[in-house]
Amino acid sequence: MKRIESKINTSSAEFQANAAHNRKVVDDFRELQRKARDDRPQRDIDRLRSQNKLLVRERLKLLLDPGTPFLEFSSLAANDAYDGDVPGAACVTGIGIVSGREVVINAGDASVKGGAWYPLTVKKTVRALDIAIENRLPVVHLCDSAGGFLPLQADLFADKYMAGRIFRNQCQLSKMGVQQVSVVLGHCTAGGAYVPGLSDYNVIVRGTGAIFLAGPPLVKAATGEDVSVEDLGGCDMHTSVSGTADYPASSEEEAIAIARDIVAQFKRPQKTHIEWQEPEAPFYDPSELYGVIPKDIKQQFDIREVIARLVDGSRFHEYQPNYGKTLICGYAHLWGYKIGILGNNGVLFNDSSLKGAHFIELCNQNKTPILFLQNITGFMVGREYERRGITKDGAKMIMAVSCSEVPKFTVMCNGSFGAGNYGMSGRAFDSRFLFAWPQSQISVMGAEQAANTLADVKVRQLAKQGKKLTQEDIDAIRDPVLGEFKRKQSAYWSTSEMWDDGILDPADTRNALGIALSASLSAPIGDPRYGIFRM
Amino acid sequence: MHHAFKLGDAEHNLEISRGADGYRLHLIDDQTVPFDLKTGADGRQWLTLDGVHHEVVIATKGDDVFIHFDGEAYQLRYEHPLKRLAAAGGGAAEDRVMAPMPGSIVNVTVKAGDAVTKGQVLLVMESMKMETTITAPRDGVIEAVTYDKGQTFDRDALLLSLVALEKKK
C-alpha cells in the first residue's frame, strides 16, 4: 500500500486562508459545544447542590475509566430547537470505557429543565439504544429525570419512534444477551420507571433516588393515599421489599462505584475478527485538514487529501484509479483496522456509480468495514446521462449500500446534496455512526436552485392568469425560501435534529472513527445478500 | 519481500526474507546473508550481520532513513515498489489534461508556451454547481489551451496539453 502523495502546498496563501477560516469555524463550534455542556442557570446548579446531587459531567467523570476517551453523541442536539432552552436535549449519550469495557452511556441531565424528556431527548435516547443494539454494547443508564415534558406530550409519547421505543429497545438488548445497569440518582417516574425496571442491575441512592409509576401528588389525587417519596419508591423500600432495585447506596459516589463493579463482572465480548495491523500515525498531519477544506462550499477539492490525513501512514490502495474518477474507492488502515473508503471527487456518473456498487460488494465479500466521505452535489443530470441509465446505475449503488452487511461509517465532509446523500450512505441507510464537519451542508438541492425553482413555478402560474410579476415580487418569493433553506441546510440544524451522531472537529475525525470501528466489532458481520440490481 | 532504497543517487534493490534468527538478505548470486536488528533495554540498537554485531543509530522520518554506522552517516530514501515502477513507465498519459466532467470554463490562468510546475493552477471549471480547479500533473510547458473562459465542453474533452521542458528546447 503506497502513500498518498499530497499535492497541496501548505505554505500557499490559499491554504493559509482556508486554515484561518476553518480554525475559526472550529473555534465557534467548540464554544457552542462548551456552552451546551457547561453553561447552566445558577439557580439550577444551586438546586442540585442543595439536593446533594452531582452534575451529569461530574457523574460521568466518576463512571468512566480515567484517561480513556469518551465519544459523545450529538452534543449539540436540540440546540436549534425550543429557543435553545434545552442544550444537548437534556441528556448525555456516548460510548465510554467503564471497567475496561466499551459501554453506551445514557445519562439524564437534571440541570436542564430537571432532566425532563423533550421530543428530542427521546430521539437522542432511542438513537443511543439503537447504537447499543446495532453494535451489541452494554448500557449504563444514569437516571435523573423529571419525566416527560407535558406541554409537548403529543410529540414524544405514542408514535413508533417515541418514548415507548426506549423500553422496546431495552427489551431487544436484553433478548440479545446484552446487559444493562441503571443507576437511579433522582426520580424515575411513570415511563422513566421502566428504565431501571427493564435493566439487569439497578443501583439506587438513598434519599434522592426513587422509582414509581406515579409520584406522591398523583397518588394522592388518584386514591387519596398520603405517602412519602421514600415510602412509595425509595431506596430501602425497593432494595428490601419490592425487589425493583438491587443495590442500595448511601451517596452518588458509592452508587457509581457499585455500577463500575457491576460492569466489571460482564464477560468481555469476542470481537469480530477483521484484518488489523499495528496502527501508525498519518504521514500528513490531520490538522492540515483545516487548510484542505475550501472556504467556499462550491469549490471542489481532492478527497484523497482528506484520506491522507485520516488513515495510517497516509497509505491508500486505490481501486480502479482510472475508471469513474469522480468516486475514489480503495483500502486503507485506520487505527490499525482495515477499511474500504468511498470518497467523492465530483458528481456521480454512470461509471462512478457502478464502481461504487462494485467496491461495496468487494468490501462485503471480504468483511471490510466501509467509510463514506461525503462531498457530493448529486448524480449527473441531462439527456445523455438519462439515456445511459444514470437512474438505474444510481439505483445499483443505493441497493449495494442498503444491503451492505459490514459496518458502515459516514462523514459529512462538505456538501451532501440530492440523491448523492443516499448513494453515499446518508442517515437513512443505517451507517453505524454518522458524523458531520461543522461547515458541511445537507439539503435536497442547493439553496439558490431551490429558491429559483420555486420562484419560477410561481411566475409561470401567474403568467397563465395573465399576471406579470415585478422583480420585487419575485424577490419576495425567493428571499424567504433562500433564508429558510440556508438555515436548515447547515450542519448545526442537522445535528440539532440528530440527522447525525454529532459534529466533529475535522482533526478529531480519525480518533472518533477509531472508537466507532472498535465498538462496531462487538457485533458479528453477516454474509452479504442483496436484492435485484437493475441491469 | 522486495524493497528499494536510494543512497545518494544510486538505487539499490533488496530482497529479504524471514530466517531462523531474524532475516536473510538475498544476494544476486543466490547467496544469503543472515542479519537482524535489535534494540536493547538501554535503547541502543544492534545490527547483526553475518554473525558480527555492530552498534548502529537509526532514525526515520517518513520515507527517509538516517543511519549512523561504523563512524559514517548515511541517508537512505525508501521507495515503494508501486511508486517506483509507476514512475519508470509514466509520462505520456499525463501530458493531456482531460475534462473530468462536462462543464464550462470559469477562468484560464495559463497560455500556450507558459512553463508550469507540478501542482500549479492551470484553469478553473464549473460543473453541476461546483468549481473544480485543474492543476498541472507535472512540470512542463503548455502546448495548447483548448477552451476560453465561458466556453462549454463535454466530459473527457481535451482541456490542455503539456510538453516536457526539454522537448520544447
How would you characterize this protein structure?
The complex is a heterodimer of chains A (535) and B (169). The two termini of chain A are 33 Å apart. Chain A has helices spanning 13-38, 42-50, 56-63, 119-135, 163-175, 194-197, 216-223, 229-233, 235-242, 252-263, 289-292, 303-307, 350-365, 383-387, 390-403, 420-423, 447-464, 471-488, 491-496, 509-520; strands at 71-73, 91-98, 101-108, 139-143, 180-184, 187-189, 201-205, 210-212, 247-249, 317-319, 327-334, 337-344, 370-376, 408-417, 433-436, 441-443. In chain A, the strands form three sheets. Chain A has a seven-stranded mixed sheet, with helices on both faces. In chain A, strands 10, 11, 12, 13, 14, 15 and 16 form a seven-stranded mixed sheet that branches. Chain A is globular. Chain A has three domains: 51-263, 2-enoyl-CoA Hydratase, Chain A, domain 1 (Alpha-Beta Complex); 286-444 and 490-520, 2-enoyl-CoA Hydratase, Chain A, domain 1, CATH 3.90.226.10; 447-488, no CATH class. With 535 residues, chain A is α/β, with parallel strands linked by helices. Chain B is mainly beta and 169 residues long. Chain B is built from two helices and 16 strands. In chain B, a hairpin with a 5-residue loop joins β3 and β4. Chain A: One of its GO terms (molecular function) is methylcrotonoyl-CoA carboxylase activity. Chain A: Residues 22-278 form the CoA carboxyltransferase N-terminal domain. Chain A: This is Methylcrotonoyl-CoA carboxylase. Chain A: One of its GO terms (biological process) is L-leucine catabolic process. Chain A: Pfam families: Carboxyl_trans.
